[in-house]
Amino acid sequence: MRLSPVLIATALLLALAVIIGVGALIITPLQPLITSASFRPDTITPNADGSDDITELTYSLSRPANVTITFTAEDGRLFTFRDNERRIANDYSVFFSGVVDGYLNEGETIAGEVLRRLMPDGVYTWRLRATGIDSSESDERSGTFTVRDGDAPLPEITALDIEPVTFTPNQDGISDRTAFNVFVTKPADLSVYLLTADGGQILIPARVENTRIGEAGLHPFDYEGGVDRNADPPPDGTYTVVALARDAVGQEVRRTGTLTIELGGKPYGQIVPQPSGASVVFATVAWEERYASLPERFGDLITPPDDPQFLNMDPLTLPLGDLLVFKLTVENVGRVPLRTTGPTPGTVYDWHQRAATFGLFDESGAWRIGIDCVTAASDYPWRWALGSDDMLITETDPVTGEVFRYLPAGATSVVWGAIRMSELEARNPQNCWAGLIHEDVAVVNQNMGARSIELVEVGQ
Fold first, then answer.
1. What would the mean pLDDT of 309-317 be, rounded to a whole number?
2. The pairing of beta strand 316-319 with beta strand 442-456
């Protein structure tokens, strides 16, 4: 029986490979898992003075391994620097300042969690252990190491106060911001952030007040959800607030709290532009005493103009003392309600009256429709709510009992009102127009539907 030439050739190649492998082992024996390891220098003074604060650990692995580095004090106490961390075959250099995984001393209580902490002054036995990843082999190296004159006090966070713990970042002027007051006991880099559902971090900016950044003491932080920077806040929900302090030595202390976001979102509204005709309808109506409003009571509401002829944009002429009536549509195009305040649509102002005349002062964060004219004494002096009560929803403050009104997200509302043009100013005719006002934030729509208005004295 003759063997196949292919089988013979394969057998010869396998035999040759075995011979070469055995020969290589004879010539170059299998190396230890850890081929070298040392600390230089073997004494440090970790006090952030720039001298002997750190040492360098160098070691080499001949094969992939899981590495653990520990320090054992003279009293047997064990400290961990690396714990079963995977490494490939390579040369390694690690700087070490005496800071190890966080620990507490016997009987010690710390506000928060110690993440990294300096070992106490003393003489230690260091051990580098390696366990093979592809085999059960293990190796170890050890030596002595000294820590002295260490800056041991922790950067403790003795206070993390959050107020309010529930806030609504939507620029409605109510609970739009929250504040964090953090007290740290020694100079440290201090950061405060929110943890997101995917493990991300949202950094909260620190305010510079009596205590400078990096100093010990009370540090205030302010958060508005990013809305003031034209960004949407994080989704509604409850978040973990993290305060993290890290001192110059590398010690780290963390403290946590919770914060709830509700009704969050950047508000957006607009005066609706019309496909044809005036976006802001202006009309004239004869004055009647029943429309007169006094500080203690409102007069009759005027009805919105509905004659199609007023949809044009021609100049208007009206007798001195009659009413300039407007009508427009406003839309909440955002995802959060728009808070608004009175007076109600249909209210009639005299030329010199303001909402404050009736005790309805401007409110930060409230949205209103305003009318302005060239000769008006202030910007948008006459203002109205974004809708009548049947178009608005209400929310009651559980603490104060105050009722707030909102135009719901996605809703549209017709707003109208009138001004008695009772003063003949130096400029006649003059332009008048509408605006959508987010009070103490911005005039969102300016100079909408500008119209030339001419006043004429009766009998001329």
1. 88
2. parallel
- Estimate to the nearest angstrom the gap between the alpha carbon of 148 and the chain centroid: 42
pTM given for the model = 0.78
* Rounded Cα gap, residues 214 and 247, in angstroms: 9
Q: Tell whether 408 and 431 lie within a shared domain.
A: yes
Q: Per residue in 218-264, pLDDT tens?
A: 999 999 999 888 888 999 999 999 999 999 999 999 999 999 999 99
Residue with tokens 């190296």: 141
**Which residue reads 């008048």 in tokens?**
432
Q: Report whether pLDDT(114) > 80.
A: yes
Whether residues 284 and 410 share a domain: the answer is yes
Q: How far apart are CA 383 and CA 360, in angstroms?
A: 10
Question: So what's the pLDDT on residue 18?
Answer: 43
Rounded Cα distance between 183 and 218, Å, is 4
The three-state secondary structure class of 236 is coil
What pLDDT does 1 receive? 44
Structural domains in the chain (count)? 3
Q: Which of 415, 449, 455, 418 is nearest to 432 (CA)?
A: 449
**Per-residue pLDDT tens over the stretch 268-292:** 999 999 888 899 999 999 999 999 9
pLDDT over 60 (residue 23): no
Cis peptide before 120 (omega within 30 of 0): no
Output the six-digit token pair for 355.
């909402």
Sheet harboring 157-163: ordered strands across? 157-163, 178-184, 217-223
Q: Same domain for 332 and 277?
A: yes
pLDDT at residue number 399: 78
Residue 134 phi, psi (nearest 5): -95, 5
Q: Which domain holds residue 366?
A: 269-456
Q: Does one domain contain both 363 and 451? A: yes
User: For 168, phi and psi rounded to 5 degrees?
Assistant: -125, 90
Q: What angle do CA 346, 309, 331 make, to 5 degrees?
A: 45
Return the H-helix or E-strand segment holding 15: helix 5-27
Residue where a domain terminates, one of 147, 172, 206: 147
Q: Is the pLDDT of residue 16 over 80?
A: no
User: Cis (ω within 30 of 0) for the bond into 46?
Assistant: no
244 plus 273 within the same structural domain = no
CB 146 within 8 A of CB 46: no
**Which residue, among 52, 28, 62, has the nearest Cα to 133 in the 3D structure?**
62
SS (H, E, C) 367-401: EEEEEEECCCCCCCCEEECCCCHHHCEEEECCCCC
